[in-house]
Amino acid sequence: MDILVVQVLNSIFYASILFLIAAGLSLIYGVMRIVNLAHGSFYALGAYVTAWTIGTAAAGAPISLMFLLLPAGALVVAAAGAVIEPTLLRPLYKRPEEYQLLITFALLLILEDVMHFVFGGMPLTAGVIMDATGQMRVMGLAYPVYNLVVIGIGIAAAVFLWAIIYRTKFGVMLRATSQDRRMASALGINVGRVYVQAFALGCFMAGLGGAIVVPSQAAQLGMGVDALVMAFVVVVIGGLGSLEGALIGALLVSFVRTAGIQFFPEVELAALYLIAAVVLVIRPTGLFFVRSA
Amino acid sequence: MGKFIASAFDRSLTRLLAWMLPVLALLLLVPVLTSPYQTQLFTYGLTFAIAALGFNLLLGYTGLLSFGHSAYFGLGAYSAAFMVRYFGIGSMELYLLGGVVITALVSAVFGYICVRHTKIFFAILALALSQVLWTLAYKFFWVTGGTDGIRVPFGSLTLLGGLIEFKGRGAYQSFVQHYYYYVLFLFCICTVLMWVIVHSPFGKALQAIRDNETRAQFLGIRIRPYRWFAFLISGTFTGLAGVLWVPLNGLVTPDILYWPFSGEIVFMTVLGGFRNFTGPIIGAITFNYLKAYAVASTQYWQFLLGFVLLVLVLALPTGLVGAGAQIVAKFRARWAAARRKEVVT
């Protein structure tokens, strides 16, 4: 029983991170119809920047300051996104989607080595935060408080994103652009600006995912490539372009994965990819696809 | 069919052969003119060229971008490795037979699933299926050796049904030389075969589907079976390349099943240009040199490759062969214009 509670908490922790990555991926696809292969690398970049800021640049600072510095990674990634969209992606919107996929693949290769060059080959951690927040007892078992913080941030991010998309003027413009780009443009929406903002917001989500994961596990090379395929599985199950789908998908993947590691570790990953493949075959638009999203 | 092949040989293929013969002569001289290392490097390039040729039947001729072709390359490679590890087989011909049969079967199944979709969903579905194979190779380490992989030493390899072996002194040099001709022979067969396929009525139908699916359907082309068959051929070619790659590399690891390797196959094809028949061949050989020298000269070779791809997509979308053809066409037009002027004056 106590193990079960801890495992459920672990699943939700993992789902929070996955949701942040997948929601960004889904948002970018929903608005500009680009499948961003570099999205995992944005997540890794967020992790590296936060780990470097907290672990190296601000080493020895009071813990409250460190908490304030936690979103540094997310902000840097959002800024990077705001530069990348107009310079690299915009020239390609009129070309076939193969080229868009390829340019994000090029970006992935470049970002992997930029991180290698800037932050070195050794893993970086922001473990101080994890240590400072201490542990609590869950049904008699020690459980790190920080994991609950991550779950809280995940829930807050989901609510925040939902509010932006469905309750603000920017959200209306975003949805209008995603449904019909030319019509939105004809109605006076600055589509170019919406694209930059949407891409930066999607990158921010991925960067935030990396930033909050890094106190509990180290930022290392290759983490982006691994995260991307997991995020793919999530958005495929939930439906590309759907926010609710990303949430449900992230929860589903996390629970299957946690159960898999517990009961059938060999085929845990294969099972996830198979689920994604089956969903694609039965409902290619995802389980929770809404036409208007 | 026979009449068609005859006519295809009559026209385009003979013209291609006239152009290709000097190239072929040069290719035959590679092991004589260069060091064993260079020969081996070029052999790698030829195996990748076969893979890219197969891949391009889907991307260039059918208009389907697969981000999961590492699956078939890896499957070919692992079939050969399993034959070594579990049955002690050393015959290259048996590897080829086994690898081709297995990749054909798997790509038939995967293809059947994938061709129900197009565009991005096709790409992601192909990727998801290839990742299933990757996780199996990665996790079932007691079968596949996990990340340590499976060794396939050339010392126990025999070519042409045991006629050629590599033992004793100078085994490596002998292997490199003989194996080069072996791969070159198969490369030529694959190239001619693919040429015939894309110029056959079947190939033309694929191109019609690529250009306008609805019109092709009105003409009575059954789209899904055609795409499925193209997928099957494409996967099998790539699988054959995987088998040929194994003895050269001496080791199979799950890396060749991981999705970034699929990205490399796409890269090669786009580098050469996917709207040309020769594009993937030139692209694969160039990519192989590019990667080999980038890896040898800098720790940050991925950056270099990424940068090249970026420039390619933004500035040279038709690839090397496409850009070359454009330059040639430009000069021809200028030359023709100059000659016309001469005639007038």
3D architecture notes:
The complex is a heterodimer of chains A (293) and B (345). With 293 residues, chain A is mainly alpha-helical. Helices cover 75% and strands 3% of the residues of chain A. Chain A contains 13 helices and two strands; from the N terminus they run H-H-H-H-H-H-E-E-H-H-H-H-H-H-H. In chain A, strands 1-2 form a two-stranded antiparallel sheet. In chain A, a hairpin with a 2-residue loop joins strand 1 and strand 2. In chain A, helix 11 (223-238) runs parallel beside helix 13. The longest helix of chain A is centred in the first third of the chain and has 31 residues, at 2-32. Chain A starts with a helix and ends in an 11-residue tail after the last helix. Chain B has helices spanning 2-33, 36-62, 70-87, 92-114, 119-139, 141-144, 171-199, 201-211, 213-218, 223-249, 259-272, 279-297, 301-315, 319-344, and strands at 150-151, 158-159, 164-165, 251-252. Chain B has 345 residues and is mostly helical. Chain B is built from 14 helices and four strands. In chain B, strands 1-4 form a two-stranded antiparallel ribbon. In chain B, strands 2-3 form a two-stranded antiparallel sheet. In chain B, helix 2 (36-62) runs parallel beside helix 7, helix 2 packs across helix 11 (259-272) and helix 2 crosses helix 12. At the A-B interface, helix 5, helix 11 and helix 13 of A face helix 5, helix 11 and helix 13 of B.
What class do helices, strands and sheet pairing of chain B give?
A: mainly alpha
CA-to-CA gap between the ends of chain B? 51 Å
Number of strands of chain A: 2
Give the C-alpha Rg of chain B: 21 Å
Strand content of chain A: under 5%
Mind sketching the topology for me?
The complex is a heterodimer of chains A (293) and B (345).
Chain A: H1 2-32, H2 39-57, H3 63-69, H4 72-89, H5 97-119, H6 127-133, E1 135-138, E2 141-144, H7 145-167, H8 169-179, H9 181-186, H10 191-213, H11 223-238, H12 243-263, H13 268-282
Antiparallel strand pairs in A: 1-2
Chain B: H1 2-33, H2 36-62, H3 70-87, H4 92-114, H5 119-139, H6 141-144, E1 150-151, E2 158-159, E3 164-165, H7 171-199, H8 201-211, H9 213-218, H10 223-249, E4 251-252, H11 259-272, H12 279-297, H13 301-315, H14 319-344
Antiparallel strand pairs in B: 1-4, 2-3
